[in-house]
Amino acid sequence: MFIPYGKQNINQSDIDSVVKVLRSDWLTQGPSVELFETAAKLHHGAGYCCAVNSATSALHIACLALNIGENDWLWTSPNTFAASANCGLYCGARIDFVDIDPNTFNMCVQKLKVKLEEAEKTGTLPKVVVPVHFGGLSCDMEAIHKLSIQYGFNIIEDASHAVGGSYSGHSVGSCAYSDITVLSFHPVKIITTGEGGMAITNDPQLAEKMSLLRSHGITRDAAKMSGDSHGDWYYEQIDLGLNYRITDIQAALGASQYSRLDEFVACRNRIATRYNEQLADFPVSTQQGSSEVCSAYHLFVIKLTQENHVRDRKHIFRSMREAGIGVNVHYIPVHTHPHYKKMGFNYGDFPEAERYYAAALSMPMYPDLTDENQDYVLGTLRRSLDL
Ligand SMILES: *Cc1c(COP(=O)(O)O)cnc(C)c1O
């Protein structure tokens, strides 16, 4: 038996939806993509949803739509998957990070404020800030939004972990406090399309730009063309886009998964509550949210609080793995990767993210995790910590 840290949940109705597409005339650019986008719009209460082949692609077209380029800065959290920062590099922008809050594991708003004050003096204010809702817990978006107005930056929420979560009554993805929100549908995330992502916005111009960029920058809409139509086959490439399209096969799975999202998030919250109860007497701390936030619980991370455990994390990790438990570590701070060190970053730059990383361990968290398996995980953890 192996208990992974995360796992998709596919039922017969998901499978039936995909098979229906396989038997139809459209494998890509057919009706399922629209169905999927409509399901997302309804769930998130947002204006426009642009489904693409990954969250990485969604982050890229989000940056392009906001016109980030050379001489611009993109700021994000160091405690994230590298894609949250790479999207700026694709556009030639420069990257910087805002250290995390040790209790929420998210970008620290106070540190963001201080960094903005300093950047204003040196003329290096960011064009785009990418808050990452780590583990499914929304950042304090109202506060970040206020700062965005004061300092004039755009916000792309990286909500790859937070599909199905909410923030002060708004579904994550509503873009109530951002320009664009990006979702991931990788199998380890909350709902899946195999590979897939989505860029959401309430701004019609950003929506139009992103849907153009998703497919080569080509339009068939006569109103957007500069030349006269040569005939019914005619189209024009009016921008330099990419092929970031999602297939109808994937989109059908996504639409079906959206109908199960609330149930998944309820399961994840039940499992998290049970972890928190049972971990009460362990020398560990867990992610602290405010009452305004409902986490989607993509991850359940424990932070070791005893120094000897932190020193021994490698062995604790290994002994859990040897017991068939797929613990993991999220994340190696982005600025410590060699590619980022080449740009001048180094250890010590973002000490909270580094301290967090040294002590973090992701526990199994997925809707199918049974109480019995969870008890086994907790028992093994207790032994691994020599409690
Ligand atoms: C998974 C993930 C991504 C990338 O998602 P893909 O769909 O695999 O491209 C981006 N940001 C974060 C925070 C993620 O966890």
Summarize the structure.
With 387 residues, this protein is α/β, with parallel strands linked by helices. The chain has helices spanning 12-22, 31-44, 55-65, 83-90, 109-122, 141-151, 204-214, 248-258, 261-278, 307-311, 313-322, 338-341, 351-359, 371-384; strands at 48-52, 73-76, 94-97, 128-130, 154-158, 166-167, 170-171, 180-184, 197-201, 218-219, 236-237, 284-286, 293-294, 300-304, 360-363.
Strand order of the largest sheet: 1-9-8-5-4-2-3
Distance between the termini: 24 Å
How many H/I helices? Answer: 14
Give the low-pLDDT segments.
none
> Radius of gyration from the CA trace?
22 Å
In terms of structural class, how would the helical and strand content be classed?
A: alpha/beta
Q: Choose one word for the global shape.
A: globular
Count every beta strand, where a strand is a DSSP E run of 2 or more residues. 15
Bound molecules: pyridoxal-5'-phosphate
Outline the biggest β-sheet. 7 strands, mixed
Write up what this structure looks like.
This protein has 387 residues and is of the alpha/beta class. 39% of the residues lie in helices and 14% in strands. The protein has helices at 12-22, 31-44, 55-65, 83-90, 109-122, 141-151, 204-214, 248-258, 261-278, 307-311, 313-322, 338-341, 351-359, 371-384, and strands spanning 48-52, 73-76, 94-97, 128-130, 154-158, 166-167, 170-171, 180-184, 197-201, 218-219, 236-237, 284-286, 293-294, 300-304, 360-363. It has a 7-stranded mixed sheet, sandwiched between helices. The radius of gyration is 22 Å and the shape is globular. The model has no long low-confidence stretch (mean pLDDT 97). The chain binds pyridoxal-5'-phosphate. Pyridoxal-5'-phosphate (PLP) is lined by residues 54-56, 80-81, 83-84, 132, 158, 160-161, 184, 186, 197.
